[in-house]
Each structure stands twice: as structure tokens, then as C-alpha cells.
Amino acid sequence: MDVRHRCPRVTAVLVLVCCSLYTFAAGRLRGRGDSWPRRRDAVFWLAGATLVCSVAVPWNAYLPPFAGHMARHLGAGMAAPLLVVLARPVTLALRAVPVAVRRTLVSVTRSRLVAVLAFPPVAAVIDVGGLWLLYRARLPHGVHESPWLYVHLFAAGTLFTFSVLALDPLRHRAGLPLRAGTLLAAAATHAVLAKSLYVAGPPGTAYTAADLHLASQVMYYGGDVVEIGLALVMAHQWYRAQGRALTRGTGRERRQPGPPHPVIHTCIPRKAHLGNLGRTAVPPRDGR
């Protein structure tokens, strides 16, 4: 059987295994009394369903060839990575696995290689730069329909989303301004690429004009939806950070001692005091 036909089945099996492991780890965490929101379980299963639908659904039966490819690109390379990162699988693994495995994971997440790859500008170049290479370079025939292409799209999209949102622990977490600026630059570059595909398709391809127009619109507007979702998550992070800073500032103000109370000295005026010297009070006589 061709690899292209085996890809949906293999993807479905791998996704089912990963989702089952995630659910088992979350249940183990709750079983020992730790909290783990159930909505993250649902988000992870939704990510798996999105990835399977992106690969397994015959989009070419409903859309033109390049537009169908772009729908798979949008699901596997943008929507599914966002949902995966929102579920925080690395944090769950660090909390649920045994101590020996946890030490290995911590050493991996704190390694220099992961720090370089998870640096937002580097991750953006790998993700968006790979798209420019895919759609603007002359590649061998059949690359746009290769199953390994969607593996790359999912991995690069997950790396970019992981680095920009920084929800899971990292050795060096970039600041919010750098992450927001990287997201803005990547979104603009992605939009320019989508507009360029509206005019001309990838070199060496012969897609129709209607197919190119529809594919570029799917890439442009679908990418905007996912990027707005990323921006909303970052805005929520900023809001929570500002709230924590305000709470810490209020707590410090409450702990600081107030100014000392003024001491009021009561004294007799000097003139009145001297005028009363030598005078003896005469008690009143009886009957008066």
C-alpha cells in the first residue's frame, strides 16, 4: 500500500495513543489529589481530532487541489499546534511521570538546543521561512502532497506556538514584548505570502487561477483566525501579569508602617504662667 494511503491510518493511531496517554496522565494527577483542569483534556482531544481531519479527510473531493492542500496546511500547521500548546502537555508530563523520567525531561527542556530552537525569532524563521521555501522555491514534483510535509508543518507550527505563548516551562522564557513582536512579524510575513499566491502559484505547478485564488484566501483568512487566537492568549497573559503585579504592590503598601502620629504638647503660655506666680488662691468665706 502507498505511504500516502497509510498516512491517515498511522496518524489516527498515533493521535489516539497520544490522547490516551494524556488522559491517563491527567487522571493519575487527579487521583493523587493534584488539580488539572478537565478542559485541557478536551482541548488536547480536539487538537488530535483537528490533526486527523486535516490529514484523513479527502479535501480534494470538496475543494480544488491547491485549496485542499491549503486546508490541510491550515489544520495541521496552525490550528492543531495552537490547541496542543493550550493543553500544556509538557507541564503535564513533568508533573505526572516518575522522578527519573522527570529529571530527563527537565534536562531536555533546559538544554541549550531547546533554548535556541524555542527562541521566538528562530522558531518563526523555521516555521514561516519554511513556508516561503515551500511555496516560492522550485521543489520536486509531489512535495506538496507528501505525508512528510504535514509532519514538518505540524512540528514547525507547534515549535512556533510553543515559543510564542511560552505556557510550558522553558530555560529562558522570552519577554512578552519580544514574543508579541515576533507574532506580529510572522503574521505579516504569512499574509504577504498568501497574497503572493493569489497572483502566482508555486514554481513548477500548473494550478488554475480560481484554485490559486481560493487557496490564497483560505491561507490568508484562516491564518488570521489562528493568529488572532494566539494574540488573545498573549493578551490574557499580559492581563494576568498586570493583575499579579498590582496585587503584589497593594500587599507591600499594606505591610509598610504608616507615618508616626503627631505628638501634641500642651503647655501654659509663658506670660500667663509668670503672672500667676506668687498669687495664692483665697478660699471663699462661708455664706458668700
TrEMBL record:
Principal cellular location given in the protein's record: membrane
Keyword Zinc applies: no
Annotated segments matching region Disordered: 246-266
Keywords carried by this UniProt record: Cell membrane, Membrane, Transmembrane, Transmembrane helix
A GO CC term assigned to this protein in UniProt: plasma membrane
Subcellular location: Cell membrane
Keyword Electron transport found: no
Family annotation (InterPro entries): Caa3_assmbl_CtaG-rel (IPR019108)
Membrane spanning residue stretches: 12-30, 42-62, 82-101, 113-135, 147-166, 178-198, 218-239
Membrane topology: Multi-pass membrane protein
Pfam families associated with the record: Caa3_CtaG
Protein name: Cytochrome c oxidase assembly protein
